[in-house]
Design a protein that fits this description.
There is one protein chain. The chain is of the alpha/beta class. The chain is built from 33 helices and 21 strands. An eight-stranded mixed beta sheet has the order 4-3-5-2-6-7-1-8, sandwiched between helices. A hairpin with a 2-residue loop joins strand 17 (664-670) and strand 18 (673-678). Helix 3 (44-53) packs across helix 4 (67-81), helix 27 (579-595) runs antiparallel to helix 28 and helix 30 (649-660) crosses helix 31 (724-730). The protein binds adenosine-5'-diphosphate (ADP) and magnesium ion (MG). The site of magnesium ion has 4 residues, from helix 4. Keywords: ATP-binding, Helicase, Hydrolase, Nucleotide-binding, RNA-binding. Residues 5-23 have a biased composition (Basic and acidic residues). One of its GO terms (cellular component) is nucleus. InterPro entries: DEAD-box_helicase_OB_fold, DEAD/DEAH_box_helicase_dom, DNA/RNA_helicase_DEAH_CS, HA2_WH, Helicase-assoc_dom, Helicase_ATP-bd, Helicase_C-like, P-loop_NTPase.
Length: 775
């Protein structure tokens, strides 16, 4: 004991000596003068005193005031200066990987050291930290997983939970755990940080914990709405065709139910509301459906800024990769913008594998205008100082969950007023700015004040699995302690699903399969697909399909060349009747093209997104590492040992069935056509983008699918035709129930007639499967 005390004392002294030495260097001095200008600096003493005196502290402050980069750093500096450095273990959570890295890197450079020394980061499968690290940035997910080994967070002296105003599911979940944990760790300090939104809510949740507000320092930002933008740019909005080439009326029907604001907009008589505007603007406003973003409009706004406004970076808010990469291409081909060497166009997206950080934060070279195309990650977690113009599409991709119909969708939807305000504020960091909103004022006026927390609008199975693995008791009663508890029906659905796929047993306890699934940071269904891929030696397609399901589909669907795109996708599917197999084949083709160094041409020819494919490659590697960590893949045997059946379509369909169950559709023959039914919602249709769309008859009686979406009717996306035997063998709970009732149930569902001996055999095989999965 004494020995470790002595070692700690020695380490504390060393930390101080190093810090003192670095402080004297000219680069750190320069950084220091930047830091002292940040609004957070004025509160340094007050903040440190409050941390000392209170177990929980809530901080709010305008984005960019220095919460993330300064406050944890103050704690660190103060600890080291007072020779307590070795006793400090400050952990700061970030909702996104990219911000964990970027902030850690920034702080290390402010301190004049390399990343991974005193300041480090850890994100899923990637870390840069050492024994010296005293301030660690990690994703909230990483901390949640660490709780499995260390439920009391004994190694942590100060925990800073950042961006809580976003109300992400992980953060809300962590707060429940922390509230229970605090009495067990009286010496630990908890600091909650939020943009200036709703700080009281959090303070109340932690027994009225004191709140410190950091006053902002922002310049005024003037704002324009769509009507003004149209007048300025003379842009005329075209009627956009959605995927089916629908009429406008049809499109309205499609979206109006999803989107009450659009409905409202359509009720307004645009002519009288906007009588001060020109005729073409009024027409354009009418054509503006509010359902899809017209990238031409975004481009026109950027073009206008570049031609008419004084210098300053432009920050464009879009909803996702699609739009970002399309717009990137579009801007590159824009002749009106003139000399391309005058622009630096940079994408910024939360799951970008490697970001060229410096370019995003740095001032661009003289005579170059920086244009950053971002998702809502630039709303509050990443601040780019030199932004003077914001172009805001007003939407963000958001999951929504309909517990009654068990329907989850990830769709662009209107952001809240709070978010729109945040986005606007990004333009006024260093000087007065301008915000161009690409939606009419009436839409803004009817936006929600705050966004609904994620825990209320997503399926909860991953969360439930997590609660189980942390042994936090019954899921329902645990979640009832949340800041805003989710709908009990949503909880029930999640538990039911976990039982159905065999992750939980009848008593709601984790099964061995469930325990494996906990260690895979993906949706339990995707996790099961991966495990089955290992066990049945068709790992490569399993990795590809899992990556696409967890990230996104690499097929792009250009509206004007839909036929060709469909044909390309079908050429991969062959006669498999499977979107998933088409995907796996497309990826193989891409890998091969890459070996021949013609992947660009390949992607172009087959309508594939190279960006998405690259991302999928990364994710495949990550999954492979995870599977090797939990012992399902023995890398020393070589990956080919796990790919013996990768080209056996029946085998691949079977493991897809295991992974996607209970997403099953029954194909019923109706004359010369096939009709599709699910147990949950009855009749459904195959999504028009599927290779199975328009096929009249299928060789096999069932389909498994990845997702159900509701537009004009209920569609199943990405489907694979499977046999009844695949369903009997791989569908549902692999934990064979004692008296065979599982099989009986399935049989009832399948209307399957087989002799007793066949059923017995199946039962036995399933027993064997179960053993394989619980090793
Ligand atoms: P907050 O968390 O309050 O939103 P931050 O601590 O993230 O504020 O940022 C404070 C300041 O530091 C901002 O002006 C921001 O532009 C700057 N900054 C943050 N990260 C970087 C970076 N990687 N490079 C350059 N400047 C940065
Ligand atoms: Mg921050």
């Amino acid at each position: 004991m004494l020995e470790t005390d002595a070692a700690k004392e020695k380490q504390s002294i060393e930390l101080k000596q190093k810090q003192d030495k670095l402080k004297a260097s000219s680069s750190v001095k320069e950084m220091q003068s930047f830091r002292e200008k940040l609004p957070a600096f004025k509160m340094r003493t007050e903040f440190l005193k409050a941390v000392e005196e209170n177990q929980v502290l809530v901080i709010s402050g305008e984005t960019g005031c220095g919460k993330t980069t300064q406050l944890p750093q103050y704690i660190l500096e103060e600890g080291i200066s007072s020779l307590r450095g070795a006793h400090y273990n400050i952990v700061c959570t970030q909702p996104r990987r990219i911000s964990a890295i970027s902030v850690a890197a920034r702080i290390a450079s402010e301190r004049g050291e390399s990343l991974g020394e005193t300041v480090g980061y850890q994100i899923r499968l990637e870390a840069l930290r050492s024994a010296q690290t005293r301030l660690l940035f990690c994703t909230t997910g990483v901390l949640l997983r660490q709780l499995v080994q260390d439920p009391d967070l004994t190694g942590v002296s100060h925990l800073v939970v950042d961006e809580i105003h976003e109300r992400g599911m992980n953060e809300d979940f962590l707060l429940i755990i922390l509230r229970d944990l605090l009495p067990r760790r009286p010496n630990m300090r908890l600091i909650l940080m939020s943009a200036t939104i709703n700080a009281d809510l959090f303070s109340k949740y932690f027994r009225n914990a004191p709140t410190i507000h950091i006053p902002g320092l922002t310049f005024p930002v003037s704002e324009f709405y769509l009507e003004d933008v149209l007048e300025k740019t003379h842009y005329e909005i075209q009627e956009l065709d959605s995927f089916q080439g629908n009429s406008r009326q049809r499109r309205r029907e499609q979206y109006s139910k999803k989107d009450p604001i659009t409905e409202l907009f359509e009720e307004v008589d645009i002519g009288s509301q906007y009588k001060n505007y020109s005729a073409s603007t009024r027409l354009s406003l009418e054509a503006w459906s509010g359902s899809q973003l017209d990238l031409g409009l975004v481009e026109a706004a950027i073009e206008y800024i570049c031609r008419h406004e004084r210098e300053g970076a432009v920050l464009v808010f879009l909803t996702g990769w699609d739009e970002i990469s399309k717009l990137l291409e579009q801007i590159k081909g824009n002749k009106l913008l003139g000399d391309q060497s005058k622009f630096l166009v940079l994408p910024l997206h939360g799951s970008m594998p490697t970001i060229n950080q410096r370019e995003i934060f740095d001032r661009p070279p003289p005579n170059k205008r920086k244009i950053v195309l971002a998702t809502n990650i630039a709303e509050s977690s990443i601040t780019i100082d030199d932004v003077v113009y914001v172009v805001d599409c007003g939407k963000a991709k958001e999951t929504s969950y309909d517990a009654l119909n068990k329907l989850a969708c990830l769709l662009p939807s209107w952001v809240s007023k709070a978010s729109a305000h945040q986005r606007r504020g990004r333009a006024g960091r260093l000087q007065p700015g301008v915000c161009y909103r690409l939606y009419p004022k009436i839409i803004h006026d009817s936006m929600l004040q705050y966004q609904l927390p994620e825990i209320l609008r997503t399926p909860l199975q991953e969360l439930c699995l997590h609660i189980k693995s942390l042994q936090l008791g019954a899921v329902g009663s645990f979640l009832s302690k949340a800041l805003q508890p989710p709908d009990p029906l949503a909880v029930e659905n999640a538990i039911e699903l976990l039982k159905t796929i065999g992750a939980l047993d009848d008593k709601e306890e984790l099964t061995p399969l469930g325990r494996h699934l906990c260690t895979l940071p993906v949706d339990p269904n995707i996790g099961k697909l991966l495990l089955m891929g290992c066990v049945f030696q068709c790992l490569s397609p399993a990795l590809t399909i899992a990556a696409a399901l967890a990230h996104r589909d690499p097929f792009v669907l250009p509206i004007d060349r839909k036929r060709e795109a469909d044909a390309a996708k079908r050429s991969f599917a062959g006669d498999s009747c499977s979107d998933h197999i088409a995907l796996a084949k497309a990826f193989e083709g891409y890998k091969e093209a890459k070996c021949n160094r013609n992947e660009r041409a390949f992607c172009w020819e087959y309508f594939l997104s190279p960006v998405t494919l690259r991302m999928m490659e990364d994710m495949r590697d990550q999954f492979l590492n995870l599977l090797s960590d939990i012992g399902f893949v023995d890398k020393s045997r070589g990956v080919s040992a796990y790919n013996q059946y990768s080209h056996d379509m029946e085998m691949v369909s079977a493991i897809l069935c295991a992974g996607l169950y209970p997403n099953v559709v029954q194909c019923k023959r109706r004359g010369k056509r096939t009709a599709f039914f699910t147990k949950e919602v009855g009749k459904v249709d195959i999504h028009p983008a599927s290779v199975n769309a328009g096929v009249h008859l299928f060789p096999l009686p069932y389909m498994v699918y990845s997702e159900r979406v509701k537009t004009t009717s209920i569609y199943v996306r990405d489907s694979t035709n499977i046999s009844d035997y695949a369903l009997l063998l791989f569908g549902g709970n692999l934990v064979a129930s004692k008296n065979g009732e599982g099989i009986e149930m399935l049989r009832g569902y399948l209307h399957f007639s087989a002799s007793k001996s066949v059923l017995d055999l199946i039962q036995k095989l399933r027993g064997e499967l179960d053993k394989l999965l619980s090793k």
